[in-house]
Design goal:
Serine Threonine Protein Phosphatase 5, Tetratricopeptide repeat; mainly alpha; about 75% helix; PPR-containing_protein
Length: about 475
């Protein structure tokens, strides 16, 4: 795609020269090439401009012209526009959608989490079997979407339906179902499906085995991982980093670190290079066993082997440092992290803030909060909850509002909701109502989460009239909307 991106201006320049008044009129095929080019480099809107020129030239578009545009819309999560193109635009232009059009839209629905829309469309295609015959890709796409949603039983319904219609499942279909079963802990059923797959003459691939290894490890059913790896090799597949990482993770969770190290050595001896996930897994296991110094050595080894630490690596070590009360070293680690081009995110700071507040290191927590905002990282709802909960037991809650909220900047009303809850928890109902007014003054629209704690406290205190006035204010806001 990068190579195409660099050639993108050249391709369009050639097209414009071709389409100039003295040039040769481009045909549908030429337009299709350029539209596909635009879509592949995330320029779907420019592709629509070319579609407009195609129609202006009185050429008749075919489904192949629309397919890259549909993919671009789905990739950009513009599902409503993609559906309108399939159901309205294409038929209006005398270009009925084909199987690829519908399958592309179904994939878009699944990627956007609109699984019910995907299944409805597939059912419609099945209902009009002679006109739109779904293929193995169409069915597998829906089965994958259902499995990712945890609806494995429904996925099997479509699996049986595709077989009854004479559409043969392929390895990808079986892999998807095996993965869905393993995610639900139904490893025994997954193994049965593996046997079914083999009986149909389909050869499992490394993805199949990796899924099963991971499932067996998570269920604690893999007693001798070495034998399984040998079996995978015997079947003609080479275990990869994903295979070894699954085994190493299971061993670390069982605190069998020495065995995990042995597998790491075996991994390297077979020409499979450990990746950041491998090292993170071992370091996490060591930290959970309170072996921070050993974990730090693995961090050094990781870097010496040319494997770059990521945000997860640093979060593991930072959390362990905080647990051991070595908060000063966390600042050094943050600097090292940034120097290596790894930018801390809101989760990193939330982890650190949570530990500092739990240890009653409130001044360090304030400093951490200031640093977080100075790096342009917006506090989340979790951040505000950590900070305000920590300070709500002291007498400087309003100081937090002034020094944290106003100085650091609240991007939504989540910070105020946290503060309201803190005041209500302390029984300071009038202060909570003052914060509610501040929410409105700051230009945020209070929602039910802001009103509910105050309303419940007012009713508990017997201040029914005040509660009614509060509810009336909610209704008034809804009426204004």
């Amino acid at each position: 795609m990068d190579n195409l991106s660099t050639r993108y201006p050249t391709i369009l320049s050639l097209f414009n020269r071709l389409a100039c008044p003295r040039g040769i009129s481009p045909d549908v095929y030429t337009y299709g090439i350029c539209i596909n080019c635009c879509a592949r480099v995330n320029q779907a809107d420019l592709g629509f401009v070319l579609l407009g020129r195609l129609l202006k030239d009185r050429l008749r578009a075919n489904p192949a012209v629309f397919t890259p545009l549909l993919k671009g819309l789905c990739r950009d999560n513009r599902i409503t526009e993609a559906a309108a193109m399939v159901f309205d635009k294409m038929p209006q232009l005398g270009c009925p959608p084909n199987l690829i059009s519908y399958t592309t839209l179904i994939k878009g629905y699944c990627s956007a989490g609109k699984i019910s829309s995907a299944t409805e469309l597939l059912e419609k295609m099945i209902g009009e079997w002679g006109k739109y015959k779904p293929d193995v890709i169409t069915f597998s796409t829906v089965i994958d979407g259902l499995c990712k949603e945890g609806a494995v039983n429904k996925a099997f319904d479509f699996f049986e339906k595709m077989r009854s219609l004479g559409v043969l499942p392929d390895t990808m279909t079986y892999n998807t179902l095996i993965n869905g079963l393993c995610k639900q802990g139904a490893v025994e059923k997954a193994l049965e499906l593996l046997d079914c797959m083999a009986s149909k003459g389909l050869e499992p691939n490394i993805v199949t085995y990796n899924t099963l290894v991971d499932g067996l490890c998570k269920k604690g059913l893999l007693e001798d991982p070495g034998k399984l790896l040998q079996y995978i090799i015997y079947k003609g597949h080479k275990p990869d980093a994903v295979t070894y990482n699954a085994v190493i993770d299971a061993l670390c969770k069982k605190e069998e670190i020495e065995k995990a190290k042995k597998f790491l050595k075996g991994m390297i001896s077979r020409g499979v290079q450990p990746n950041v996930v491998t090292y993170n897994t071992i370091m996490d296991g060591l930290c959970k066993m309170n072996k921070l110094q050993n974990a730090m050595k693995w961090l050094d080894e990781m870097v010496s082997k040319g494997v770059s630490p990521d945000i997860v690596t640093y979060s593991i070590i930072m959390d362990a440092l905080c647990k051991e009360g070595e908060t000063d070293k966390v600042e050094e680690l943050l600097d090292d992290m940034i120097s290596r081009g790894v930018q801390p995110n809101v989760v990193t700071y939330n982890t650190l803030l949570g530990r500092l507040c739990k240890m009653k290191e409130l001044e360090k927590a304030k400093k951490c909060m200031r640093e977080m905002v100075s790096r342009g990282i917006s506090p989340s709802f979790v951040t505000w909850n950590i900070i305000i909960d920590a300070f709500s037991t002291t007498d400087d809650v309003m100081d937090i509002l002034v020094n944290v909220l106003l100085n650091y900047g609240a991007r939504d009303n989540s910070a105020y909701i946290s503060l309201i809850k803190a005041y209500v928890k302390r029984g300071n109902i009038d202060e909570a109502m003052c914060v509610l007014k501040r929410v409105k003054q700051e230009g945020f629209e209070p929602d039910i989460d802001a009103y509910s704690p105050i309303k419940e406290m007012l009713l508990e205190m017997g201040r029914v009239d005040d509660a009614k006035d509060l509810i009336a204010g909610i209704d008034e806001n809804k009426a204004d909307d």
